[in-house]
Amino acid sequence: MKSNKLTPLDELHLEKKRLREERAISGQRLSYQLQYLADNWGSMLTKGVTGSLKNKLAETMENLSYGSHSSVQPFKTKRPGNPFLNLALANLPLITGIAWRITKPAIFALAARKITGRIFGGKRRR
Asked: What is the pTM of this model?
């Protein structure tokens, strides 16, 4: 029995066809993944932020329970003069640290919304 041998040109055509099919499948997979990201970026970001906050809270509680002074700063209250101004100035590093931890997730969410808006387009408002 004689085996049918493909010519080099036929082999190239078959390879080209196979690569086109692989490219189409990869394109569909990529579009599915991008659509998933577009639909779920908010919940993914929220899960990341809440996980981070939960870890920070657990670390703070652990430091408080064991009496560690490395990350927990005392709240300073005594200085002569205007008590409210002195209280705010004395604790400025502590207050700015707390404010940054509160605003950082909001800034990341805004940046993620802007980036996904640029990536996925959408209608532009004018």
From this structure: 0.36
Using DSSP's 3-state secondary structure scheme, residue 3 falls into coil
Question: Cβ neighbours of residue 38 under 8 Å, at least 6 residues apart?
Answer: 116, 120
**pLDDT tens figures, 44-67:** 878 877 877 777 777 777 766 665
Q: How far apart are CA 89 and CA 91, in angstroms?
A: 5
In this structure, what are the phi and psi dihedrals at residue 2, rounded to the nearest 5 degrees?
A: -100, 130
CA separation for the pair 56, 77 (Å, rounded): 25
Cβ–Cβ < 8 Å for 94, 75? yes
Domain residue ranges of the chain, discontinuous segments joined by +: 8-61+90-119
Give the integer Cα–Cα distance in Å for 29 and 5. Answer: 35
What is the DSSP code (8-state) at residue 91? T
Tell me if 79 sits within 8 A of 86, measured CB to CB.
yes
